[in-house]
Amino acid sequence: MPGATDHLRSRLWTAILRRRASQWLLALAPLVLAAYLLAASSLAAAVAICVIWIIADALRWRRRIGQQWPSWLNAAIPQLEDSSTLLAEDAKTPIAKLQQQRLHARLAEVLTDADYQAIARARSKLAILPLVLSLAATGAAAAWHGKQTTAAPPPATAQANKPIVDGEVHLRVTPPAYTGVAPFETGARDIQIPQYSEVRWCINNPRGAQAAVELGDGQTLAIDKDCAKLRVEDSLFWRVRGVASTRYNIRVTPDQAPQVTIIEPTELIHLLPKDAKSVQLAVSTKDDYAIVRASLHMTLARGSGENIRFSDKEVPLPQSTDPKSRSWKKQWTLAELGMEPGDELYFFLRATDNAPSPHTAQSPTYTLRLPGPDAESLESTALPSAVKPENLRSQRQVILDTEQLLADLKAHPDMPQATLRNRSENIASDQAKLRLRYGQFLGEESSLFGDEEHEEHEHHQGAGGAQPGSEIAIMKEFGHAHDQEGNATIFDPQTKAVLKRALAAMWDAEKSLRTISLKTALPPEYKALDAIKELQAAERVYLHRTAFVPPALKEEKRMTGDMVGAMSYKRAQGVASDTVPAEVRELVQALSQDGVLPALWSKAARDAITARITDQEQKLSAQRAVQDVQDGCVPCRAELRAWLRGTLADAPVLLQARPSADTPFSKAWSSKEQAK
């Protein structure tokens, strides 16, 4: 039965084809995608080879199916009892024909689409080599294309692909030498160039009358045999005179300041471990053209109080193969930095580019802090312990008293309850007094040297003890008090946060001591001590040196008594520092009508736009509106008026009243107006 056998082989071929098609697509897709995106003609040969391989692979599997499909069926379908070979031969005897009929009937019942797919998966394994070769060819083409792009001229040159035609205006652009951008020529089109580039408008084989270029800022340049040239500082547009519909933009890319980054450490204040032997510093700086100088500035602070010494050091960053960037990562030993326990190192990165007027960028100041040996807290070291008053006991002494009480309680479990409560209350009182003392720095009311109940009683009297309705009472009720917690501005927010953390811990310890929970009181006591130590360690504050340097007097004026040119500048009161020109105000009013505009209106409009609009794209749009109105476009007046009104939004306002003369005529006139 050849027809049934052909149907069987066809279904096997379909399953194998579906299985192999995914592998063919995986091998062909990277090559086709790379050839389309990179426009690489070199990949055409690789694509052709891949297509030939696909065709050869399909023919090979077609031949294998024709030769091996009986053995595939025997291995996949045990119910066939290894009799599939009978289907591939022509039956000559009645018994053979009967056996073929039985096999076909059994195949119709047993063999399903899932079986065909299982056979295809078992026989057609995933071919890794073609996919690897395809990806390798794609990667090589991408690398070659990237190398060609890097070796190509900068973007400004890459855009200059419009052909130059005789008789038409074309551009010759010469960027500044320090940018490293090569000069280029292009036809009339939109371009982007570095700031301070020299642009020339030229014509090859000029025809007819002399051509001229109209710029967006109102200038008109005649194109002669030496071309028309301009040193471009801001973005502008231009057109050839007489061709009002075609404008071309010249966008300027300003030279940016270097970008400096401190990579390691990541915190502005980095606390080193006590046993630290080294520290890693990593810095990086980048610029759009080149970096000529980059250095790491270090300042080492040693000592405390008024006996603090500073030593400065500057370390230049090593140059790299890329002049646009410098990176440095080094593991410094503390001996190289000169740091000892208790010292602080302040460092920042400074970089300068290669512009004619160099830009300098500086990173924030980072701090490396190496803890010193443990010292007594501030209040315990300020006074000798032998003569220390009870109300100035230190946080460390509170901890020692609490630990001593715990030890005594462990040694004498039968300690009287009254004695235990009395000693715990005394420690709690010491903790409360210490808390009130530190609370003064946050503006809290303190009862350190007075009776708390008496002060509380006075606090509830009218306006702090003053007579109700008196001047003092009114001032205290409605005035602004600077001794409140939120208004205490003697410390920075970070120091306030540490103080609040210490006070909260002291308050928790006091509550535990009041309830005779000694073990619960120790953790907040240690937490308060750590906060106090942190405050002591932050007693040094690093600030960049900033000072006013007055201008030097001329030597010939010294000791002469001549004050001309030596007095400070004084501005007259009531005079605005900057006023909107009257011609601009008149132009805004005139643009709301269809009448004749004031004389020299275009110059006033362009000057206002140049002086008051900083965004380059907005400035180009406003200058286009000026040129449109100048060409006679009446509907364009509304757009220009909107741009000019936008420039007047930040106009200064004179708030002082102007003096007016009170004459007999003005009095008579005002009385006449009132009589009406």
UniProtKB/TrEMBL annotation:
Keyword Membrane: yes
Organism: Duganella flavida
Keywords: Membrane, Transmembrane, Transmembrane helix
Identification of the protein by name: DUF4175 family protein
Keyword Transmembrane attributed: yes
Top-rank taxon: Bacteria
Listed transmembrane segments: 33-56, 126-144
